[in-house]
Amino acid sequence: MIRLKKLSFSYENKNILDAIDLDVKAGERLVLLGGSGSGKTTILRLIAGFMAPGSGEIEIDAKLVSKEGRVIVPPYQRNVTMVFQDLALWPHMSVGENIAFGLKMHKIPAKEREEKVRSFLVLVGLPGYENKSVEALSGGEQQRVALARALVLSPKVVLMDEPLSSLDEALNQRLRKEIVALQEKLGFTLVYVTHNKEEAQEIAERIVEVNNGRIVERSMDTLSIH
User: Fold this and answer.
1) Where do runs of H (alpha helix) occur along 11-158?
2) Over the stretch 162-210, which tens digit does the pLDDT of each residue have?
3) CA 20 to 30 Å from 9, out of 29, 49, 65, 140?
4) Measuring CA to CA, how many Å separate 185 from each of 27, 82, 123, 181?
């Protein structure tokens, strides 16, 4: 599904990623676990197509999408969506407008957009929230809106960058379970970034630890990040 081959990336003469190889299977829940500055978010942004690798290749569905300084397939053509750490919701838009934004960019007719927004709000537990202000929502509700916005396009791949890091522990734990349930229901491939060992263990089918731009697959009982 996703293949990274000898992927390297540098910024301001500092190596962020060092010739990493990684395969992610279709429908898998893969967690990238690592501390701040380890390179895990860079991996997500390269998969999404927001940046080009310094060297190496990225394939999605056996199609070459990035290679050695070039983004060959732009982000909007990759069937990949991303949930950012800060959620990146637009405060001037309603909940429904936030979720519908990608559908509108893909020229989905208005009636179909409205139906999809309603159905995905039900899916994430926010029925009837279409006209609410994003700024009036709680942190957990905003997280659910971000999830709905990412999922409404029916992507093959969903990337999540520390999406629960700003939430209190009880809400964090509840949303971990909801993310797993959504992935199992919809069947997308999930690549999830966190620094939290317990969060990784609860979400992942497979964990890859990222440290100083290198990666190593870990079993649940050999994780070194806390």
Assistant:
1) 40-48, 95-105, 110-123, 139-151
2) 999 888 889 999 999 999 999 999 999 999 999 999 999 999 999 999 9
3) 29
4) 11, 18, 10, 6
Cα(60)–Cα(47) distance, rounded to whole angstroms?
A: 8
Using alpha carbons only, what angle is made at residue 181 by residues 95 and 48, rounded to the nearest 5 degrees?
A: 65
**Distance of CA 80 to CAs 51, 91, 158, 160, 171, Å?**
14, 23, 6, 11, 26
Two structure tokens written together for 196: 């939290």
Query: pLDDT value at position 226?
Result: 43
Cα separation, 176 vs 26, whole angstroms: 20
**7 contacts 19 by C-beta, under 8 angstroms:** yes
Say what percent of the chain tops pLDDT 90.
87
- The strand pair at 214-218 and 157-161 is best described as unpaired
Radius of gyration, alpha carbons of the chain: 17
Question: Which residue, among 156, 148, 163, 143, has the nearest Cα to 41 in the 3D structure?
Answer: 163
Q: What's the whole-number mean pLDDT along residues 105-125? A: 95
Closest CA to 196 of 165, 222, 158, 218: 165
Looking at residue 107, its pLDDT comes to 93
In sequence order, the β-bridge partners of residue 142 are none
- pTM of the prediction? 0.92
